[in-house]
């Protein structure tokens, strides 16, 4: 890497001035050059405050990390696409692979009673509160290679970089990487099984009886992999006094970073989420013999409800009244964060039964509740008018999470430092984003303060084989985690 023009000019001036002025001693000459060496070190990022040479670790944080993401992306229960659900054969293989990589990074490893994979560096003070870094190893069906996996691999790679430079044992507090066994909730329709157990918010008895589509319970899946249950699951909870904080690196799952042209962004909060299941029951009237004014078609009623939901969430200010339950500020906040979508629609077991699922997300929990209340109220009026039976079940609730300002600032600074080290240029201001997607950090927020770092993904696409992160962005994410860990030295 060639010295910048300003450095070359400074060198020429110093030497020529020393030669022309015989009164300068050899000592004076080197004192004159001293600022030059300082600037060189600063410009090239050659030393940190301890005098240790910086290394960009491309062979670990880029080449190896990308290779591992590709290898992990091929560990699947399906042929031709990626599917890795809670306690499936592929998830066990993936866990074993991650455990081996953790050990390669110099970490002590174990698998807990919920199938979470842990890797820990004790540092200088093992009794200090631990810094936790994690994400999930499970996937949706027909998934991409980066959702969840990126956060785990970046953390392992950063710790390996510390280990390779002889600094892993100099950490002032323990650092623990956790690959959570379930975040997506695909197999048992119950999200955050792994992180909720560690955070101490898992309803153990109810969770163990949850069944997948094949009739296997959570308890059965755990026992099939020689994992004991109930009593041991209750012991998984970490005590708040033992944890300093939790950080998660994740693909953005949105287009903002790509639009601003930067690979990294700090997260200030995660939207609250409610999942509903709506059932509409009517009558299987013969397609040709029941007159239109006497029909009780559940599909038409369901269609009307879905269209109303779209209108409600596009224009909440039109439908919600300003009263004690819903202030004008709440309605205004919904305009910037509210998203309502319909996922699965089913007519099984017959045309007289229609079910569909609704996902409502917003940063304002009061506003989210107001939307659900308004939708439910209108739903019963519409169903009465059409003479069909309707029911709404709440299947999942998670309140919005505000990331810790201190951790967010540290992650933003670490991102800035990482990008500057890699490019040698000032990257400008690192964006601060909101997360509309749910993450393990939501469960972990019940245990400790949380922070998140987003990584640019092409087109904002996730939960798809088209999900993609540039190799250089993987590198930047790993460097950011490394820069964050260096603050703990």
From TrEMBL:
Pfam families noted in UniProt: Peptidase_M20
Catalysed reactions listed for this entry: allantoate + H2O + 2 H(+) = (S)-2-ureidoglycine + NH4(+) + CO2
Compartments in which it is found: Endoplasmic reticulum
GO biological process, one term: purine nucleobase metabolic process
Keyword field contains Endoplasmic reticulum: yes
Keywords, alphabetical: Endoplasmic reticulum, Hydrolase, Manganese, Metal-binding, Purine metabolism, Signal
InterPro entries referenced in this protein's UniProt entry, alphabetically: Amidase_Cbmase (IPR010158), Bact_exopeptidase_dim_dom (IPR036264), Peptidase_M20 (IPR002933)
Top-rank taxon, per record: Eukaryota
Cofactor list: Mn(2+)
Cellular component GO terms, alphabetical: endoplasmic reticulum
A single GO molecular function term of this UniProt record: metal ion binding
EC numbers, comma separated: 3.5.3.9
Transmembrane feature ranges: none
Quaternary state and interactors: Homodimer.
PANTHER family in the record: ALLANTOATE DEIMINASE-RELATED (PTHR32494:SF19)
Family affiliation: Belongs to the peptidase M20A family.
Full protein name: allantoate deiminase
Organism: Anisodus tanguticus
